[in-house]
Amino acid sequence: MAKTLAEKVWDAHVVRKGDGDGANAQPDLLFIDLHLVHEVTSPQAFEGLRLAGRKLRRPDLTIATEDHNTPTLDIDKPIADLTSRTQIQTLRNNCAEFGVRLHSLGDAEQGIVHVVGPQLGLTQPGMTVVCGDSHTSTHGAFGALAMGIGTSEVEHVMATQTLSLKPFKTMAINVEGTLRPGVTAKDIILAVIAKIGTGGGQGYVLEYRGSAIRALSMEARMTICNMSIEAGARAGMVAPDQTTYDYMEGRPHAPEGAEWDAAVEYWNTLKTDEDATFDVEVDLDADTLEPFVTWGTNPGQGVSLSQSVPSPEDFGDENAKAAAERALQYMGLEAGTPMKDIRVDTVFLGSCTNSRIEDLRAAADIIRGREKDPQVRMLVVPGSARVRLEAEAEGLDRVFKDFGAEWRFAGCSMCLGMNPDQLEPGERCASTSNRNFEGRQGKGGRTHLVSPVVAAATAVRGTLSSPSDLEPAPEPVVEPVETPSASHAA
Amino acid sequence: MEKFTKHTGVGVPLRQSNVDTDQIIPAVYLKRITRTGFEDALFSAWRKDPSFILNQEPFNAGSVLVAGPDFGTGSSREHAVWALKDYGFKAVLSSRFADIFRGNSGKQGLLAAQVAQDDIELIWKELENAPGTQVTVDLESKTVVCGNIVAPFEIDDYTRWRLLEGLDDIGLTLQHESDITAYEATRPSFKPKTLPAKLS
């Protein structure tokens, strides 16, 4: 029978088929290849194991990192916030007790759990990956079935290395065409969410397909899969291809030699069969896409950057109308205001959505040689300590610092403000993160979700801006370098 | 887990769509390492507003939350379910639940009952016209009763069975431990292991 990518990965992990058929079917028991753990959603799960006298079944398929609570300054000092410090110490104690590998603050592999897994080569095509964090969908960029789970399920995976799950429906997101300069993966996913809504993906695994997706780098695919959850989907996936293999080859935990060949042979089978059908298909035109930005308090409330703040009257549905009214009030926005007239106080470049090396490079390319709007504070938080080191080796830290941005240590930071990196009440932020919920980045904070290049352009102008709004940067002063002439080269 | 068959309590109309888990419990409360004691955290930002529904009698003593569509979106934090339960809620009614929230509810014995939006609107009106009206949620017959309104609700059969029986998931799965062991023996050797650690 013809299958979609999601169905193939599902079927390859069924430990035990649920009894019964159709609506009465019990869930399947699925094996979990990789369990990622962090300090916030794990303490109660470890405690559950302890109380029941259970072991953690597969420490060799489990890895932990500290990310949500960690400070991004003074990381060599004890964590000032006592409850944060206790939670992190609890993770350290639990990992030691149950034999789990942990990358702690200060370690070169520490960072946001969804940056660390792929960077170590632990995320691979065709795997099942779970974590007590909804943005686990990120790992679907490799053709893995990757899902966020709650703490009870975290405990279940710890005890059994499986999850009981009912099969999902499948949705194809077809993105055809070529992105224009300044338009990125972030704009694709924000446009998808605006189109299908925050509940549009509920009960579905999304598969992103089409020429525009195939042309994307792994970092960009991760950005898209990351935000699948903001459309309500359980997971998002991209079929693996040469781009995937090139990214993976040589990473610490990637297979080697004959194992690599065997793996690639298997990975090559991980694509939706031509005659397979999706339950739903959605099309998006990449050619006409513009930089996208949110105006409201859920990720579906977005428009093209060249548009204006919508009016509640634009929405037919009563609930959507009420939600828009409430959002405008919270955001302190008037309907009809051009998005590009909106002034921000803070620019946040970071989060599991957009904190990888490519994101930092893209933003650095925009600001290099330009000046920051003096009123704007810009925070740059690399996704992992490794990304930070890589960026420093390329001199990106200097670009950000010269621009006047704050260059921080790795973690979730201002995406959710569990550490000291928070917005003040009423403060407005252009953020490369994933959620513009009320109070998400700090009580009373106002969030506009944007791509890294829009974030960078906004930091220059002080108002929501796309790179095409910028004056040309002054020519950099470079030392003359002798280059061989064409005749020499020949 | 406690068995859930039927519950009757004061209904709370929450006329709002897209109630995300950051609203149900802001991240600042997630630093705790316990599984209980989150009642103060529930809707903590909204509860600062005196006009918020849970600041009004008799709704403050409510145990059945009647919410707009797309309830529980966003973060996977199970703390959202713990906070609702700790406050005293036994059931949430909505026309659409986020998948992870629905799953978390089922694990913790909080009934997430999917009710058609038309019926939600009727129940909202009833609760607003006669504050303090009791809502009965009957899991056996899958019906909600509020005043003269009788509405069916949906819940998947497996979760319903587990709630009715009060069954523990891990215990159920471990009955099939030999299947897990057999599956493990078939896994390809190229699949990665986190241990021993390899570093860049």
Automatic annotation (TrEMBL), chain B:
EC number in record: 4.2.1.33
Catalytic activity, as annotated: (2R,3S)-3-isopropylmalate = (2S)-2-isopropylmalate
Ranges where the Aconitase A/isopropylmalate dehydratase small subunit swivel domain occurs: 1-116
Annotated source species: Arthrobacter liuii
UniProt family annotation: Belongs to the LeuD family. LeuD type 1 subfamily.
HAMAP family: LeuD_type1
InterPro entries in the record: 3-IsopropMal_deHydase_ssu (IPR004431), Aconitase/3IPM_dehydase_swvl (IPR015928), AconitaseA/IPMdHydase_ssu_swvl (IPR000573), IPMI_Swivel (IPR033940), LeuD (IPR050075)
Pathway this chain belongs to: Amino-acid biosynthesis; L-leucine biosynthesis; L-leucine from 3-methyl-2-oxobutanoate: step 2/4
Keyword list, A-Z: Amino-acid biosynthesis, Branched-chain amino acid biosynthesis, Leucine biosynthesis, Lyase
Protein name per UniProt: 3-isopropylmalate dehydratase small subunit
Assembly and oligomerization: Heterodimer of LeuC and LeuD.
Gene3D superfamilies attached to this UniProt entry: Aconitase, domain 4
Function: Catalyzes the isomerization between 2-isopropylmalate and 3-isopropylmalate, via the formation of 2-isopropylmaleate.
Domain of life (superkingdom): Bacteria
Record flagged with keyword Lyase: yes
Amino-acid biosynthesis keyword on record: yes
